[in-house]
Amino acid sequence: MAIVITILLPLAAAAFLLLMDSRAPASRARWWALVATMLTCAVSLGLASQFVSTVNSVLPKRGIIEPRLEVHHTWMTVGETPAGEPIHLEIYLGVDGISTAMILLTTLLCISAVLVSWTAVQERAAEFYAALLVLEAGLIGVFCAFDILLFYVFFEFTLIPLFFLVGIWGGPLRRYAAGKFFIYTLAGSLITLLGLISMVGMTMQAVPTLTTPFSMPALADALATHPLPAEVQGSLFLAIAAGFLVKVPLFPFHTWLPLAHVEAPTAGSVLLAGVLLKLGSYGFLRLCLPMLPAGCAAVGMPLIAVLSVIGIIYGSLCALAQNDIKKLVAYSSVAHLGFCMLGMFALNIEGITGGVLQMINHGLSTGALFCLVGMFYERYHTRMLSDLGGLATKLPRLGVMMVFIAFASIGLPGLNGFVGEVLALAGMFKVQSPYLNGMTYAALGAMGVVLGAWYLLGVLQKAFFGPLQEPVHDDHAEPILDLNAREMLAITPLALMCLYLGLFPQTLIDLIQPDINGVLQASAAQAQAVAEQVAALSR
Amino acid sequence: MNIVLSAIRNAVDLILPEVALLATVCMIFLAAPFLVSERGEAAPGLRHRWGWLSLIGLSVAAYLWSISEIQPVGLGPFRLDGLAWFIRGLSLASGLILVLVNWNQAEDARAGETQACLLAIIAGVNLVAAANDIVGLFVALELISIPTYIFLLMPRRDALAQESMLKYFMLSIFSSATLLFGMSYLYGLTGTTHLEGIYASLQAGQSQPMPLLVTIAAVMMIAGLAFRLTAVPFHFYAPDVFQGAPNSVAAMLSFIPKVAGFVALYRVLAVTIPSGDWSMLSLSTPLLWWLAVLTMFVGNLLALLQNDVRRMLAFSSVSHAGYMLVGFVVGDAGTKAISGYDALLFYLSVYGAMTIGTFATLAALSTSSRRVSAISDLDGLSQTRPVIAIALTFFLLSLMGMPFTAGFVGKLNLFLVAWNSGGDAGQWLAIWLAVNAAIGAWYYLRLIREMYLSDPVTEVGQEQQPAVMVAIGLCTLATMGLFMMPEWLWQAIQKV
């Protein structure tokens, strides 16, 4: 029930905002939005605690994907299984450790997103916050969905509010950016849909008793005993990966990202980098690793490892060359998501744990970075590094926050980024597969850490230290002041989380560990089933 | 004598709703010309009498439909099988909405005839589904065409409307002739005009020695009916006609002929009858496969180039005909899973709600003096008419196939069917469908961009039109409801 409330609460708030008198002052809309996001965050905390207590109370006899607090509702009954039973398509909601973590990240970032838009968005404020809340609901929906179709529904749905956020409240190229982002992602995910449908169709042929073929746990369990042939898994992996590769985005499918980030309003960037990109890696984790382990090992690992390493190095080099800080952070996202995918496709416990940690960590640190970039853009109306210098003396609080978050993003030990990157690289380092040499890739990936330090420290050095240099701001009569209480409120929780997860990463690891074990269990189970089949044939 | 009378009674019993509709039509046609004042304006309280009367006629028909029961197919001129029952419900529902869209489209002097034409068209669709004889089928199709000619010209009589009417008239006559030609070969092959007789003869393999005749019959009938589906290459009239026609007529044209066309195609191609290698089905499937692919691509690619809203929507309608053809091509291939026809009927119903809704929003924006034509006329609509902008966005997202709209479920069903039960050919169709869904998103998105991402330039009509708003509301409800509870429609389709 808590799940349904978490999804519906922001939706209801959005509907309320849209019905509000459009001539009402923007302040009313933003206060409502703030209250709504805070309430949602509170509900999601309740959901998390409920989840933790359920996990502790239930005996650990688990399937490959094991959601708790489930909600089932038949959506549509379509056709019959080969055995003659009606096939149910379900509305199937639930949470497991990974999705709980992602939901908490989403609700936390949404509060910051509202706070950073406080003065930046004056035009059509009610509509803006409504779009933001709808986006929040869609994102929470993705993480709660345990039916493949429902997952896809929410996955696609998030495009719509973000399209409006970028398109209406974005920068000068917003129309182009919004269109490109929408079409690019949609085209990718349509291929994913075809892949998912054929995966489910083939499973139904193999397991005629499956009456809820689109339910992720049921499908994963069915595939564990009746795995698809390895070459089929490979091609299915490629099809399903199409949409997720674009979403993550991995090189060379990343071209929409810098554009969308630069044009998006700050809140849009925060959610885009913080949560939306993770939908891609989350999709891999939910739909590829547990269902198609052989495909992931044979096709996924070499492909993704190569693309991630290229992404890490290329993204870092691009970031190094940028003058626009927002674009720099956008390219750094390409690099950081490269670490995430590199770890995840090491396909061992360290790597996947590192990948999931990286998802959360990148959400926190890059979300915060975009908030900070938005804050000084609001002050100076420029994001060009060449216009700025020595701001730390003039804006000490902004400077401190920027240094702190940049260190988190670089992966300084003691802050959150370190743990994820180390685990991801360690996972890759261990890989000994006929398809690729893990050590090489881990070493190449580690170069990205150095490059990351280089470009982020470069930003700090250029913009915050050295002689004070401020852009001319004639159009802007107000004095330039340091961060106010509202801005501190937006950034502090994120910074605190970065510190906490750096010092006590075990909290998060404990939360996600069982689910990652489940995912790994799938590949073992499928390998065993194949071995049994071979043995049966040879007899 | 008694036998004849009882045969007539039995036949009429099967088409009671249509009798009610046509009675209303006769009433309006007989009375309306005498109730027009000199100045051509109705008395203030009586402006909408014909609309109300049509609604009453439709309600009576709907009541008669709701108490009708599916009957085994007999030898009479009409049948009431599952498909006829379903199509009747669908067309009555869409008729109700179309009457509302048409409420203010014509000036008072012609309002009666306009609504009557619409009702006659609805009755025609029902009769296409209910016909048990290819002659009856043809007559029913003409019962759709002929009022359409009048309907095209009635509400507006400017040059554009005349041009579109003439184009439609010429091509429609041509397509009817083609269809008749094919039907005559079908009659020659089987020696009967009765559908059940034709099926029996085809099943017995009487056509086996005459493959060429079967080919000609199938090709000609497909060509004739493809005109109604607006399938490429018989789509040429669509953009011109949609552009020139009044909004309510365009709404009707984007949906009703497709319903009739698919039902007629289903009936005359004897698609459910297994009849060996040279069956009509085995001949028509590859043909229709190409038709589907061409229709999707041509429709979507040409829609990208349009600058007139209605022309764009016309090409969008063409592309949707292609999507539906996908369902038709897959057909009954996988019997255990859902059949392509089920997916087609689902998509057809969903498409009805979203396309009529789209044109209804255009009707709500247009006034007698000013019509929405160029895409840029929609600039900044979200600020001038926010409610309509949201509704139109919703319909466009549904046409795109985005989640939380019925269009998503419709496309999903087509994907499921084509991929899982269509074999290799079906899987290719599914891939082309996916490609086209992505192309299509671009031009629908363009309209949304104009509405939300641009500032208003031109004045939009601010007239309140309650009837059209009700129609928009109903379409929105259907589009949303069929996403939330597709089960409801799905159960009805399973009966077919």
Give an account of the 3D structure:
Chain A has 539 residues and is mainly alpha-helical. Chain A has a domain of 175 residues. Chain A contains 20 helices and 2 strands. In chain A, a hairpin with a 5-residue loop joins strand 1 and strand 2. In chain A, helix 9 runs antiparallel to helix 11. The model of chain A has no long low-confidence stretch (mean pLDDT 88). By secondary structure, chain B is an all-alpha fold. Chain B folds into 2 domains: 253 residues; 218 residues, no CATH class. Helix content of chain B is 74%, strand content 0%. Chain B has 20 helices and no strands. Classes of the chains: A mainly alpha (539), B mainly alpha (496). Chains A and B meet through strand 1, helix 5, helix 6 and helix 7 of A and helix 17, helix 18 and helix 20 of B.
Structure keywords:
heterodimer; A: 539 residues; mainly alpha; two-stranded antiparallel ribbon; 20 helices; 74% helix; globular; B: 496 residues; 2 domains
Give a concise summary.
Chain A has 539 residues and is mainly α. Chain A has helices at 2-19, 26-57, 97-116, 125-144, 148-157, 159-169, 174-206, 216-225, 230-247, 256-263, 266-288, 293-320, 325-344, 349-380, 391-394, 396-410, 416-430, 438-464, 485-503, 505-538, and strands at residues 68-80, 86-95.
Quaternary structure of the protein: heterodimer
Report the span from N to C terminus of chain B.
Answer: 36 Å
Number of helices of chain A: 20
* Radius of gyration of chain B, CA atoms, in whole angstroms: 22 Å
Secondary structure blueprint with pairings:
The complex is a heterodimer of chains A (about 550) and B (about 500).
Chain A: H1 2-19, H2 26-57, E1 68-80, E2 86-95, H3 97-116, H4 125-144, H5 148-157, H6 159-169, H7 174-206, H8 216-225, H9 230-247, H10 256-263, H11 266-288, H12 293-320, H13 325-344, H14 349-380, H15 391-394, H16 396-410, H17 416-430, H18 438-464, H19 485-503, H20 505-538
Helix pairs in contact in A: 1-2, 1-4, 2-3, 2-4, 3-4, 3-11, 3-14, 3-19, 3-20, 4-5, 4-6, 4-11, 6-7, 7-9, 7-10, 8-20, 9-11, 9-12, 10-13, 11-13, 11-14, 12-13, 12-18, 13-14, 13-17, 13-18, 14-16, 14-17, 14-19, 14-20, 16-18, 16-19, 17-18, 17-19, 19-20
Chain B: H1 2-14, H2 16-31, H3 49-67, H4 82-101, H5 108-130, H6 134-153, H7 159-190, H8 195-203, H9 211-229, H10 237-244, H11 247-268, H12 280-304, H13 309-330, H14 340-365, H15 381-384, H16 386-400, H17 406-421, H18 423-453, H19 466-484, H20 486-494
Helix pairs in contact in B: 2-3, 2-5, 3-4, 3-5, 4-5, 4-11, 4-14, 4-19, 5-6, 5-11, 6-7, 6-11, 7-9, 7-10, 9-11, 9-12, 10-13, 11-13, 11-14, 12-13, 12-18, 13-14, 13-17, 13-18, 14-16, 14-17, 14-19, 16-18, 16-19, 17-18, 17-19, 19-20
